[in-house]
Specification:
The chain is of the alpha/beta class and 242 residues long. The chain has 10 helices and 5 strands, in the order βαβαβαβαβαααααα. A 5-stranded parallel beta sheet has the order 2-1-3-4-5, sandwiched between helices. It is globular, with a radius of gyration of 17 Å. The relative contact order is 0.12. About 13% of the residues have low confidence.
Length: 242
């Protein structure tokens, strides 16, 4: 399992961590390389263990998962994607997690298949935004003049959201151009991104390779001045491209 996806589990409940471990390791291509019960432990473990994905709880003693996510994403020596997993279906947790740089957001009542798929998506560099989550982001931020309550952090040195396929879904507040010269294919890809499709799903929809999709997504993000897929989704809906 040398090429297995390396996962760090962060939750203050040992039983919850044990359940996640059992589910993830049953997938065959995922290895849990460590556990942490506080946000501070998570930051240290992410640095020491070099996981590909961190599954992060929100409410924990010592340091909450949002702050831990922010510190992990800001560390140029850590390349892990963070998937926030919580029992609380609250918009403030969702938006805070995305603004902190999380690559995805799941509820703890998600099925085993969703958890495994979420870890795989984060490891592949896809932002894990289910359609219902995308709709909530759009409802809050896509209206004309709408903006997040706080600016997203700037990309860390050595970490490129574009090269990462849009993972690390920070909600960008950069001023985006009102008109962008997209090719017909790029516009088509943006439309599908705005429908919360992953790169693999877009590849199947358009009958092209996934690597080609990643190239198109990177080009779209660069042309839009968008840091990530979430910002691209907001742009698409604001400008009638979705």
């Amino acid at each position: 399992m040398s090429d297995a996806i390396r996962v760090l589990l962060v939750d203050d409940h040992a039983v919850m961590r044990a359940g996640f471990r059992m589910i993830l390791e049953s997938a065959g291509d995922i290895a849990v390389v460590g556990e942490a019960s506080t946000g501070a432990e998570a930051v240290a473990a992410a640095s020491a263990l070099a996981p590909d994905v961190v599954c992060m709880d929100v409410q924990m003693p010592d340091m909450d998962g949002i702050e831990a996510t922010r510190r992990i994403v800001a560390d140029p020596e850590v390349s892990a994607s963070v998937v926030v997993i919580t029992t609380f279906d609250r918009d403030d947790y969702l938006f805070d997690a995305l603004s902190a740089g999380a690559s995805g957001f799941l509820l703890k009542n998600a099925g085993p298949e969703e958890l495994i798929a979420g870890v795989r998506a984060a490891a592949a560099g896809d932002a894990l935004l289910a359609p219902e989550v995308t709709r909530r982001v759009i409802a809050r931020f896509a209206a004309p003049g709408a903006a997040p309550d706080a600016p997203a952090p700037a990309p860390s040195p050595g970490r490129s959201p574009v090269a990462n396929g849009g993972g690390g879904a920070q909600i960008a507040t950069v001023e985006q151009p009102t008109t962008v010269e997209l090719t017909e294919r790029e516009a088509e890809v943006l439309r599908l991104v705005a429908q919360a499709m992953s790169n693999a799903e877009i590849a199947r929809e358009l009958y092209i390779g996934e690597a080609t999709v990643k190239t198109h997504v990177s080009n779209v993000l660069q042309k839009l001045g968008a840091r990530d897929r979430v910002a691209a989704v907001v742009y698409a809906h604001r400008h009638g491209l979705a």
